[in-house]
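Fold it.
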Amino acid sequence: MSLGISIIEPQAVYRPGDQIAGTLTFTSSSKSVPAQQVLISLKHISKCRFGLAELETLYSANICLNEQTIELLEAPTTLSTSQEWTFKFIIPDSTGFHLTPFHEPSRLYNDDPDQVLPPTFNPLKSQTSGSQERVKITMGLYAEIVSEKVSSNVFKREGISESLLLDFLPPRKAYLVEWEMATKQVNFVAKSPLLAEINGHRDRSLSIKEKMLTTLKSNSLPSASFDILMSLPRVAVVGQPVPLFIGVHHEQAKNHAQESPAVTLKSLVVKLEALTGIRGLSESKSLFRAENLPASHSSWTKTTELGRLTNSIELAEITDLREHLHFRIPDDTIQSFSTFNIARTYSLSISAVLECAKQKFNLNFDLNLMKLLAAHDQDQENPPGVLQPMPANGDRLPTWEESGGYGEHGIPGEKAEFPPQYA
């Protein structure tokens, strides 16, 4: 005996509003099966286990975020040989399942009772929980045959069931944001004999010996002050490059050099850090506040190197690093999401080494809680006044001018400028 689920025109990924239609087939070579009900359900399930092995069974739970069920039998009957039923579901966009919020809200988790359904999610196995996965979010079709009734509300399960998992992405409208650049400004001061100058000799370059003698006479090292500004978007798209801009501004009034010294970017490494967090659920599926349980909250990170610079670059007022550093968000990266008990957020980490007058300087930039969007098709119009940070032409992402530079809400098409003091 067996059940089989077949979908008509299956899709690789399902989104809210999509239709799932198909057939459920029962097959038996000899035995007849009494059936009170034949059920097929579309379920969105959130599951989490906490990291401490001894608490695995106490604090794990399956939470059905959304469920639709169709009863395929019009009346109880006996099933024999083979039989087929048709079904049809429409994919929902929200849980529709009212949950009591946690006592202590957290910006990492979404405590809205009518939250958007999260994407299907099956991360790597946890180091602390052995072979068991700590988090899983699935959407699937689940079919079963229910045999005779034991009591008014209890049925004997025949043990004949079938399931089919599907991939799901949330509605794109929930992740539309204005394009906004995050910036960091750092001041560096280079001190070196190489920056020395002699009054009356601005028309020629000084030899190393002359610069050393000038430094000894003045009893101090000449200096050059410059600002480094780095900018990257607060939004990235899976499978697409990440715009990354860096600029240098020399403070002429503080420079002792004959001319502004060159600032060279010697190395740069870009890393993506994924933070996954889970909050505890009791066996009764009610939310709880566990003050004395170390497993009531858990989180872990996974770091991926996206790319590194392999050659030196002399920095200009504005340098688009995409011309020198080719990296993109990996195609298999899950988008940002947040439910009441599971959340996935990202941060982008930049570490660089600069050189000026033979001196090296370290620059670090961490962008926390960066939003990562799934690469949806460009087949829907954006709501008025809301901008979609997606490439308009294939892999093309906004230029410096289109991205708005360091503007408060960099809107594509606006003129990009450095902060007012450098305008």
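Helices lie at 208-218, 400-403.
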